[in-house]
Design goal:
It contains 7 helices and 18 strands. It has 283 residues and is α+β, with helices and mostly antiparallel strands. The chain has an 8-stranded mixed sheet, with helices on one face. A 3-stranded antiparallel sheet has the order 15-9-17. A 3-stranded antiparallel sheet has the order 11-10-14. Keywords: Dioxygenase, Iron, Metal-binding, Oxidoreductase.
Length: 283
């Protein structure tokens, strides 16, 4: 029988998310990494600080969450590591990173039939100010809805579109090549999502990839989406992560919304690596 791993788990701000202390990810055994994943499944986000990790260490850790997911845009991946995406305003390893990727409330890969399970960020260089990551707790937001609103939203389906997202986003706007458009067809996901770990419900609204709500007039759909985004991103539901060098933060895309924030990119640098684990179809 496997020995139960005891972790020092502390709640993050406002009771959402958790920090695991006293863990060395580079030298942790498989049982410890599995225990970290188990903690993640029930907290929405998991932070481990003070790490010194090589790309292979990151891949080993993300693989305990699930099969590493590749990235749609290949030009910003680390040389030799297609599963590691560079977020940076400087050149890293012979490649320039993606600058301001992830600014705007969203959930990763929501334009896929099977969106990614989780996002992992490893902080290598931190700007002198700004560049925080904000996470919204969509389960707490759902629980705070009135019963009448829960019933209204329960059967609604969102139309997600990568093409729409890339042609309307604030940063990095681009027209898709025929190949990218064919590889990323529009998909449809429920507005209220059930978490497979314990059945908790999440108000799985998003911006960016959401084109409309099925069966609803465009103006009405846009107004409802704006109303729900404003609701779930209230301060009472949001954890702000102020990055330190060596932070590894993993958040659960099945029950959170997130956004990056701007920083003084003219006078300081940011370098972080992003990894994903494959997910499953929302239900």
């Amino acid at each position: 029988m496997a020995t139960e791993v005891k972790l020092d788990i502390r709640k993050l701000d406002k009771g959402f998310g958790a920090e695991a202390r006293g863990v060395d990810l580079a030298n942790a055994d498989d049982s410890t990494l599995d225990a970290l994943v188990n903690a993640f499944e029930h907290h929405g986000a998991l932070l481990v600080r003070g790490q010194k990790l090589e790309p292979d260490d990151l891949l080993r850790y993300i693989s305990h969450f699930g099969e590493p997911e590749e990235h749609t845009l290949k030009e910003f991946t680390l040389e030799g590591y297609p599963n590691i995406y560079i977020l940076s305003n400087r050149e890293v390893g012979g490649r320039k990173g993606s600058h301001y990727d992830g600014v705007g409330w969203h959930t990763d890969y929501s334009y896929k039939e099977e969106p990614v399970k989780c996002t992992m960020l490893y902080s290598i260089e931190v700007p002198s100010g700004g560049g925080d990551t904000l996470l919204a707790d969509l389960c707490a937001a759902y629980d705070a809805l009135s019963e009448e609103m829960k019933q209204k939203l329960d059967k609604l389906v969102l139309h997600h579109s990568y093409k729409y997202f890339m042609e309307t986003r604030e940063f990095g706007r681009m027209k898709l090549s025929p190949e990218l458009e064919a590889e990323n067809p529009d998909v449809f996901h429920p507005l209220i999502r059930t978490h497979p770990a314990d059945g908790r419900k999440a108000l799985w609204v998003s911006t960016g990839t959401v084109k409309d709500i099925v069966g609803m007039e465009k103006a009405e759909a846009d107004a409802l989406i704006d109303e729900l985004i404003a609701f779930v991103t209230q301060d009472r539901f949001v954890y702000r992560h102020e990055w330190k060098v060596g932070d590894v933060l993993v958040w659960d895309n099945r029950c959170t919304l997130h956004t990056g924030t701007k920083y003084d990119d003219a006078n300081s640098y940011r370098v972080a690596y992003r990894l994903w684990a494959k997910g499953d179809k929302p239900f």
